[in-house]
Amino acid sequence: MPQGEPAPQINPGVSIEYPTGDNFVIGTSHGGVTVKNFYKTAKEIIEQTEVILAETKDYLIVYHAVTSNFDIEFLSKASNFDIILASAENDFLSRPGISKSDACKLDVTVNIPYGRNLIVGGPHPLSFCSAIPR
User: Fold this and answer.
1) pTM to 2 decimal places
2) Taking Cα atoms as reference points, which of 77, 33, 81, 75 lies closest to residue 54?
3) Rounded Cα distance, 117 and 106, in Å
4) Per-residue pLDDT averaged across 63-72, rounded?
């Protein structure tokens, strides 16, 4: 689908329009966050509603266009979890070209597999967000 054209109807009254510029703003309850247009560099766009920003053997980064939220999904229970978490978070910051402060304004969930020794599995915020006020 050419950029800037509305996507097909997903639900009655809901359509997604791809951003066409180099940047776009994601609105949040903490103010707008300007991001690089990651639609242009997306690994994949699924059914016009999910944008796969990155996929490795260890993690997946997804933007949900309808709800304007991000998920970082861990795909393995690798022993070097801290290194993978740092890599995923750095990847998340670099793809939309944002600071840690701006990342903490966004709705981001880090989904960690159960069974990690240092952290309880399930959804978590970005590791650096608790120290940065929104």
Assistant:
1) 0.79
2) 75
3) 28
4) 93
Distance CA(82)–CA(76), nearest Å, equals 13
Burial of 18 (0-12, 13-18, 19+ CB in 10 A): buried
How far CA 100 is from CA of 10, 38, 91, 93, in Å, comes to 32, 17, 12, 7
| 133 pLDDT above the threshold of 70 | no
| C-alpha to C-alpha distance for 120 and 118, rounded to whole angstroms | 7
Contact criterion met (CB below 8 Å) for 16 and 8: no
The rounded distance, in Å, linking the Cα atoms of 15 and 65 is: 10
Bridge partners (DSSP) of residue 46 are 50
Could you please report the per-residue DSSP string of 35-95? EE-TTTT-SEEETTTEEEEEE-SSEEEEEETTTTEEEEEE----S-HHHHHHHHHHHHHHT
